[in-house]
Amino acid sequence: METKVNYTAVGAFVLALGALLIAAVLWLSVGLGKRQQTILYQSIVSESVAGLNLDAPVKYQGVNVGKVRNINLDPGNPQQVQLVFSIIAGTPIKTDTLAVLKTQGLTGIAYVELSGGSPTAPLLQAREGQTYPQIPTKPSLSARLENVLSAVLANLDRTAANVNAVLNDENRAAFGKILHDTSAVMDALASQKNAMRMAISNAAITTANTAQASAKIDGLFQRVGKSADALASMADKAGQASDSTRKAADEFGGGVRQLSSDTLPDLQRLMAELTTLSASMTRLIEQTEHNPSSLIRGRQAPPAGPGETK
Q1: Is the residue at 278 inside a domain?
Q2: pTM above 0.70?
Q3: Digit-coded pLDDT (tens) for 119-137
């Protein structure tokens, strides 16, 4: 029995299914369900944007907030690249927000990362003469690494040049001579190791003897110190004795002075009388020697002189 096919119904079904697919594609691509409003911003980058393509994602702290809409060289400065972003309205783009280029893993696909934006900072607005609000940028990690490596390589080049300048033929010959002389000195030291060992041993013995002598000297110093203390004690006692002697001499001198002041006048008178008595005795003795009878008859008158009468 032959089956009858309704080609009209089949065609209508195919057309309806195609229309649904087309509607779904348009809804997904254009966002017929809900269209989000976006705001355009601009950034100027002073490095290579290799790997960054149109519609590349723009992320704020890792969250997708927009896409890259335009990539152009700056007509006034070809060392700079102008980037235009389409960012969802309501994204807090502040005056201190920064844009930086980053890459996704090992694929090398670049995207734009926004960071910063303190809560107290005002929202970014377009200034006079700017078509779009301009987000400041900072060098990417690759750019910073490139700058560091360039500086390191430049320093290495300068160091290598300085080393080459120092290690010329003349200096290399001088260094070779120094190494040769050093080797000769080391050989000489090695040949004198026995003498050096003996000298070290003698030095150890000398040090031990010095230590013993030092111990003896310490004892001698102690004895000298005791002797000095004894001498000091003797000096103190002698001083005390001298003070006593001085006091006794002062007392004796005072007594002598007092005795002199009291008895000296009487002694003077006595001496005068003794002198007179001695003179009288002398005259008596002389008279007796000339005329012994005078002791019995007394002294005779002297004979009369011329013209005198008895």
Answers
A1: no
A2: no
A3: 889 998 988 888 899 999 9
The pLDDT tens digits for 179-216 are 888 888 887 777 777 777 777 877 777 777 666 666 66
The reply to whether 173 falls in a domain is no
Phi, psi of 150 (to 5 degrees): -65, -45
Q: Please give the Cα distance from 103 to 200 (Å, whole number).
A: 70
The owner of tokens 């004198």 is: 192
Residue 97 lies inside a defined structural domain of this protein: yes
DSSP-assigned states of every residue in 180-214: HHHHHHHHHHHHTHHHHHHHHHHHHHHHHHHHHHH
Residue 221 domain-assigned (yes or no): no
Domain extent, residue 62, equals: 36-137
Q: Token pair of 228, please?
A: 């000095």
The total domain count for the chain is 1
pLDDT band (50, 70, 90) for residue 32: very low
